[in-house]
Amino acid sequence: MSRTIKIYDTTLRDGTQGEEICFSLEDKLRIAQKLDELGIHYIEGGWPGSNPKDISFFTEIKKVPLKSAKVAAFGSTRRAKVKAADDYNIKTLLEAQTPVVTIVGKTWDLHVKYALGVSLEENLELIYDTLSYLKRQTDEVIFDAEHFFDGFKRNQTYALKCLQVAKEAGVDWIVMCDTNGGTLVHELPGILEKVKKVITPIPFGIHTHNDTEMAVANSIMAIQCGAEQVQGTINGYGERCGNANLCSIIPNLKLKLSLGCIADEQLTRLREVSHFVSELANLKPMTHQPYVGNSAFAHKGGIHVNAIQKNRETYEHIQPELVGNKQRVLVSDLSGKSNVMYKANEFKIDLKDREPEIKQILNSLKELEHQGYQFEGAEGSFALLMKEALGERKKFFDLQGFRVIVEKRQGDAEPICEATIMLDVNGAVEHTAAIGNGPVNALDNALRKALEKFYPSLKELTLLDYKVRILDESSGTEAKTRVLVESGDREGKWGTVGVSRNIIEASWQALVDAIEYKLEKECENDPQAK
Fold first, then answer.
1. Hey, what domains does the chain have and what are their CATH numbers?
2. In sequence order, what are the residues at sequence separation of 6 or more whose Cβ sits closer than 8 angstroms to the Cβ of residue 181?
3. This prediction's pTM
């Protein structure tokens, strides 16, 4: 029977330390749901003592029905001269009320001396007091041995002593961290062999950074040396050069080493989750990323294309569908029918025996993606696209016209934004105006104001997030813009997308899709609804 490796995701904490990455509270909640669906065992939500957003996350995540993932709160050993029971940060960890608490502690004597400014013996007391106290209060405690490999190479005896103390404190896991990312693969076996002699029978894990491009390789080596938990982030997001990339580690474990981690069906969602997180991070998905990148199974050379048409194994190390990707020939994209069918099932749209409509959806998808649309974070827009191909998309209103005015009256005053809109709703013309704290907000307010008298349920609709990405930076102010909107109501959340060289028009497309998706949902739940 093969081993099962526990996957510990720290995208929502360590990943957010990456340059250019900032998730909103709603982003973090949506990503947590996706990680749970992917089969991730542990989701590290953040450091509750560090900022209000993380405190709110641990409150709100309790309302999210996760299927299997455990949520972990992250913190550090207590402060010097303060008992763990009296330490403010330790108290906030317990107030998060998570089933798992992860504590990072210093194991490199250099850090103990210069970063903490305490004696080596006092640092051991910090580790023991913190971990033993939390173990009495919490179901599961993980000790992240920070800078362990650097510490081992500088002072082996002390680094191992830190692990021994964590073991004596009764922790459930001890995780060796290559925090500076400077360890090479060949160094791990000898070091981990000595680690196991000290900490057995406590299971151990691995947490690596990518400063030498070794994070994934070191993670795999540690698992081959007996690690039973691997920590990392989606797309390898993280500080400096990033963390170990779970989008590479997970398929390597399942497909190359035949080790258990997530289910086969969950693995087929890996690319979707990768691109979903990219969209919410407002970063372009990494085209050449292994397994999940658009180019991971793309073929351009004539010899290659000729070969894969005869036998795809000639230039593909796995079947791309196993990770939710697809084979591409750059002169003519091959069909993505399986992806469409998967999404159709997700939205309870029946495409069985509807080959012409499936082909139309694929053609529309190909054309829209060429224009700059991306649907990984815009599931609402894609559901509407499928319904339109089936002739099932309902018409709730027609636009007669809108106008947005931005007026700045004084140099130090905020601009005044007003939107005027005229709609035809089932033969009734509605003409109204609204102001907002920006042109898009004004347009959103005017649209809702015009429609709420006809569709009162739109009062429940909330715009949760709004993201803009420039698609062709070289065009300057004439660049094409993609707008991603996240909306929600009492029953759920969804994303919609719009693309245009005019940011207002792109925003309008996304806003309209958000409203129509909600109204479509209501019609499905209540056929008598308008």
1. 6-280 (3.20.20.70), 348-396+459-530 (3.30.160.340), 397-454 (3.30.160)
2. 208, 209, 210, 211, 212, 214, 215, 240, 241
3. 0.72
